[in-house]
Amino acid sequence: MLKALITGIAGFAGSHLAEYLLQEGLSVLGILRGTTDNIDHIRHRLTLYTLDLTRERPVEILQEERPELVFHLAAQASVTRAWQDPESTMINNVLAQLNLLQAVVEAEIKPGILILGSNEEYGLVKKEESPVTENNPLRPINPYGVSKIAQDMMGYQYFLSHGLRCFRLRPFPHIGPRQAPFFVAASLAKQIAEAEVGRRPPVVQVANLEASRDFTDVRDVVRGYYLALTRGEPGEVYNLGSGREISIRNILDFLLARARISISVEQEPHTPRPIDPLSTGTCDYSRFQKATDWQPQIAIEQTLGDILEYWRRQTARETR
Questions:
Q1: 22 by DSSP, 3-state: which?
Q2: Which domain holds residue 305?
Q3: Stronger pLDDT, 150 or 272, i.e. the higher one
Q4: Which helix (H) or strand (E) holds 189?
Q5: pLDDT digit string (tens) for 93-129?
Q6: How many domains does the chain have?
Q7: Helix 248-257 vs helix 184-196: angle between axes, to the nearest 10 degrees?
Q8: Is 232 found in the same domain as 162?
Q9: How far from each other are the two terminal CA atoms of the chain, in whole angstroms?
Q10: Which among 93, 89, 103, 109 has a CA at the least distance from the CA of 56?
Q11: Which ranges of 85-183 does DSSP label H, i.e. alpha helix?
């Protein structure tokens, strides 16, 4: 039985990855430092360690458990929060990974290690450069993108200098149940669910409806994480995304059409970011597909419907 370690196991993607790996028959370990709400339903099947990777190296955990696969998901993942607090974003994303990789070296083990970059590494994508390939120039336009380039290159450096089996992915935005409500699809669904039960006025506040992104269901994404470590090439970098863009307006229209009450839309006051392009390009995932046979399977309509139902359940629990 393969043993997998997930850092950030109680997060949005981490909890979905834990579910997927358990379904695949793996033994799953996790490192966390916050609440366990997202994994309470499977906690009895996990081995969990509480550790702050920005302060400690998990050498003893790695020596004792000797996982064959390491999925490094612990990170500050919000572009908005990165603008608000770039320092903590750099600490969380860069220092945590440094401590993890150095711990692998010190533990003298050779697991496959998932290094997560982001499409935000590409940043400012010119119209003629979409779909975005792994050869696109890196033009980061926010602190989060810079932190992800650092993680990406650090993984490559440890592959070259220490021989670690680092597999580098650049996922495009992913959405699904359990995502925090400061991300757009979750925010819209949560507002609708609360309005349906009278917890808030029947008004949805939204910022920029014209922006569009290449969204993928998180459950497709975590399947890609597993395939990267089991079929990918160490040291290589792969894009991971759906290959299609959808506007925030279309997401909102889909959710409003399924609302149980009539809901109006209001432009919310917000502080503009220094730069926030309407489009960041679509993902060319052909290199990853060739290596792993991965392709997205879950339709955006199912994803959005599942997000809305998740927030209806959450709202129902909170109103009891």
A1: helix
A2: 184-211+245-281+299-319
A3: 150
A4: helix 184-196
A5: 999 999 999 999 999 999 999 999 999 999 999 999 9
A6: 2
A7: 20
A8: yes
A9: 42
A10: 103
A11: 86-90, 96-107, 143-162
